[in-house]
């Protein structure tokens, strides 16, 4: 998973205009600390994490960035003492960062940041050598962080204080996959390469805008995970899922799109459960298949999109049996049966506002009530009609 995220991040940086790199705005160094949440029984004993980070940021003006409030972009590297060196080891993170700023005065401002990337850990789970690490089942995992803070600026320097939440997961591709969930308090020193004047406003400028428009959406995907429970590693084969989605999209603003899709997939891991437990003997293919209705929202930034989806499982007989006969039928597990979700990143090969059809590549994590289910790679298209000149 971490390799995938790093490849996507690298592709994004290569697609940035060269002038984006020439407009370096600031660098920041600092430290952070927080205690990992014990979300599962049997998690290893741990002290609070102690971490260091460094970031470089730049500005890149475009019609899309203007609609998002002209955010800063950046790359953040981090080093993590995970709180138990013998079991959890250390972590090294690399993330792409977006920062949104609000100006309160010449010296004070608030900000929100989103980081997406990967983490490499030195001591993942091992059946013989490190069986107590239920947090990290593999060397590489995705690493996501959100934060909000306040900045005090003096000349070309600033002090930043922010509260953040860090999450790591390998999307169930390697078990165990409890994942890291850590609230952090971060303190940083920032140096700017320029002196800005926040009071210059161009009142004659008209922002880029597209009219609202409906479209058709179709997508195929290939999912992959390891069969087993979150903390029950099998050390076995990975299993595929073939995904098909059809539906409608509604781009109601330039940077916002809604989607309504009917999705089906066949799950080889479900087929293994059915064969082992002698379930669905008379309908082997349908018994290992799923049908779900999904509603999603997408933030659009030029050729890139970030999609969050949630929905309802219309048909999922294997998950019904797993929750009723294998797992405990708790309230959260019952919700997991009915509420699928997905977090996805898209790259549009050609933008739909300037073409009749738009082709996109998608990398996603499909979940059940927020719990990672499988990693999914896909190819899709949106047909909506041209809205803007080339």
Give the total of beta strands. 16
Strand-pairing-aware structural class: mainly beta
How many DSSP H or I helices?
Answer: 7
Q: How are helices and strands ordered from N to C?
A: HHEEHEEEEEEEEEHHEEHHEEE
Please report the distance between the alpha carbons of the first and last residues: 36 Å
**Proportion of helical residues:** 10-25%
**Strand-residue fraction?**
over 45%
CATH C-level label of the largest domain: Mainly Beta
Biggest sheet architecture: 8 strands, antiparallel, barrel
What's the Cα radius of gyration?
Answer: 23 Å
The CATH architecture of the largest domain comes to Beta Barrel
Shape: flat
Q: Which regions contain 5 or more consecutive residues with pLDDT less than 50?
A: 1-22
Question: What would the CATH topology of the largest domain be?
Answer: Porin
Mean pLDDT across residues? 88
Q: Tell me the domain tally.
A: 2
Strands ordered across the widest β-sheet: 1-2-3-4-5-6-7-8
Q: What can you tell me about this protein's structure?
A:
This protein is mainly β and 390 residues long. The chain folds into two domains: 2-192, Beta Barrel (Porin), CATH 2.40.160; 213-383, Porin (Beta Barrel). It has helices at residues 2-15, 18-22, 63-67, 268-277, 284-287, 317-326, 331-338; strands spanning 24-34, 49-58, 72-81, 90-103, 108-121, 140-154, 157-169, 180-192, 213-226, 238-253, 256-267, 289-301, 304-315, 340-348, 357-368, 371-383. A hairpin with a 2-residue loop joins strand 15 (357-368) and strand 16 (371-383).
């Amino acid at each position: 998973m971490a390799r995938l995220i790093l490849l996507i991040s690298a592709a994004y940086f290569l697609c940035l205009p060269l002038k984006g790199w020439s407009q370096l705005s600031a660098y920041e160094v600092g430290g952070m600390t927080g205690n990992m949440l014990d979300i599962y029984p049997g998690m290893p004993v741990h002290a609070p994490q102690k971490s260091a980070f460094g970031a470089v940021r730049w500005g890149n003006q475009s019609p899309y960035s203007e609609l998002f409030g002209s955010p800063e972009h950046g790359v953040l590297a981090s080093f993590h003492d995970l709180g138990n060196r013998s079991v959890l080891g250390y972590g090294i993170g690399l993330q792409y960062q977006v920062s949104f700023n609000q100006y309160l005065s010449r010296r004070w401002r608030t900000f929100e940041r989103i980081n997406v990337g990967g983490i490499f850990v030195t001591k993942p789970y091992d059946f013989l050598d490190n069986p107590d690490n239920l947090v990290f089942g593999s060397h590489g995992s995705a690493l996501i962080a959100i934060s909000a803070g306040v900045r005090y600026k003096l000349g070309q320097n600033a002090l930043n204080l922010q509260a953040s939440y860090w999450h790591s997961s390998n999307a169930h591709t390697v078990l165990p996959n409890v994942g890291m969930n850590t609230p952090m308090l971060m303190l940083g020193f920032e140096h700017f390469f320029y002196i800005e004047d926040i009071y210059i406003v161009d009142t004659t400028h008209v922002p880029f805008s597209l009219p609202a428009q409906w479209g058709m959406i179709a997508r195929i995907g290939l999912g992959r995970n390891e069969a087993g429970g979150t903390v029950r590693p099998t050390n076995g084969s990975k299993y595929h899922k073939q995904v098909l989605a059809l539906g409608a999209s509604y781009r109601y603003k330039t940077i916002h799109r809604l989607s309504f899709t009917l999705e089906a997939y066949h799950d080889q891991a479900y087929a293994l459960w059915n064969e082992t437990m002698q379930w669905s003997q008379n309908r082997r293919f349908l018994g290992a298949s799923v049908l779900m209705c999904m509603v999603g929202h997408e933030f659009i930034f030029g050729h890139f999109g970030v999609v969050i989806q949630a929905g309802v499982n219309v048909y999922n007989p294997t998950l019904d049996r797993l929750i009723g006969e294998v797992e405990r039928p708790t309230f959260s597990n019952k919700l997991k049966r009915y509420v699928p979700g997905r977090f996805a990143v898209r790259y549009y090969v050609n933008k739909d506002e300037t073409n009749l059809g738009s082709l996109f590549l998608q990398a996603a994590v499909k979940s059940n009530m927020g719990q990672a289910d499988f990693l999914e790679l896909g190819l899709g298209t949106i047909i909506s009609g041209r809205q803007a000149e080339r």
